[in-house]
Amino acid sequence: MNYVVSAVAFAAAVVLGAAGARAAGDPDAGKQVFKKCHACHNVGENARNAVGPVLNGVVGRKAGSYEGYNYSEANKSSGITWDEATLDVYLKDPRARVPNTKMAFPGLPNDKDRQDVIAYLATFGPDGKPK
Hints:
Layout lengths: L1 H19 L6 H7 L39 H4 L7 H9 L1 H4 L13 H11 L10
Helix pairs in contact: 2-6, 4-6
């Protein structure tokens, strides 16, 4: 009996831990917010570098490292690995977080918009396929 209870508790902890690993925002709402980003960035299986780099797999990726994109020296040497916290700060005011970045976008001042777009970006693996 104790074994069954322990197994159930362990399984619940694993499920809840996996759910907590996802971005806090709403990916569906983030897809709408991403329309502001789409003029320069692409995601998905057929994504290509444009004015900005492809954002497939950006959550967990080292800044300035997407193959084939010509990043600013500021971005390449920033030492940033994009996680939810660093993306949140950067997306609020890109030039404040990485001075001399090529990104001209002024940022997303709304906290919920940033969390939602980060959740949306987190749904794409490095190959552009949904996770």
